[in-house]
């Protein structure tokens, strides 16, 4: 059981770039009834140099997964963490109590990535990945189906409803793990 000795859960928020992971994670960290540390894994990789190389053409880093997992392990095993990353299959299954996969209509996603200044081929690649539900399939094949939850992230009302659902889930988790409701 992932969470046997933890006081607070580990929530993975994943999805194609631009689906809203960081936005959700920040608000959830603010509104959670238990303290949750938001780790933006992409930023972590950059800040700590946990990559093998930077690909200029794709404007992306080749992550050193072994080092990344080694650095995350002691933090994650304490619990009370939101792991925010565009992929989730590298994380050990035992880490996650809940895996949220954010989804977005591809035309909206295209606009978000354009605004971010991504090169066209990177926008296309991510757009296709979203249409083909690559991250959702990856989550479903990496974790027990009952902890993987797919949520739409298109407008502000989705954002509010999704965070409210996660807060409710945390309250129940806490009750089940001997904390207050
Ligand atoms: N549900 C949503 N409603 C409105 N805007 C959103 C929503 N989700 C994300 N956005 C916007 O889309 C952009 C990308 O969101 P971000 O959280 O950075 O995505 P990610 O972390 O998945 O790359 C941001 O400008 C954010 O404000």
Automatic annotation (TrEMBL):
Region (NMPbind): 40-63
UniProt keyword annotation of Nucleus present: yes
Species of provenance: Asterophora parasitica
GO cellular component: cytoplasm; nucleus
Pfam family, one: AAA_18
Entry-linked Gene3D superfamilies: P-loop containing nucleotide triphosphate hydrolases
Molecular function per GO: AMP kinase activity; ATP binding; ATP hydrolysis activity
Assigned EC number: 2.7.4.3
Subunit description: Interacts with small ribosomal subunit protein uS11. Not a structural component of 43S pre-ribosomes, but transiently interacts with them by binding to uS11.
PANTHER family hit by this protein: ADENYLATE KINASE ISOENZYME 6, POS9-ACTIVATING FACTOR FAP7-RELATED
Domain of life (superkingdom): Eukaryota
Family: Belongs to the adenylate kinase family. AK6 subfamily.
Residues noted as binding ATP in the record, renumbered to the chain: 18, 20-23, 116
Reactions this protein catalyses: AMP + ATP = 2 ADP; ATP + H2O = ADP + phosphate + H(+)
The entry's keywords: ATP-binding, Cytoplasm, Kinase, Nucleotide-binding, Nucleus, Ribosome biogenesis, rRNA processing, Transferase
Function: Broad-specificity nucleoside monophosphate (NMP) kinase that catalyzes the reversible transfer of the terminal phosphate group between nucleoside triphosphates and monophosphates. Has also ATPase activity. Involved in the late cytoplasmic maturation steps of the 40S ribosomal particles, specifically 18S rRNA maturation. While NMP activity is not required for ribosome maturation, ATPase activity is. Associates transiently with small ribosomal subunit protein uS11. ATP hydrolysis breaks the interaction with uS11.
GO BP terms, alphabetized: ribosomal small subunit biogenesis; rRNA processing
Localization (cell): Cytoplasm; Nucleus
Alphabetized InterPro entries for the sequence: Adenyl_kinase_AK6, P-loop_NTPase
Name of protein: Adenylate kinase isoenzyme 6 homolog
Region (LID) residue spans: 115-125
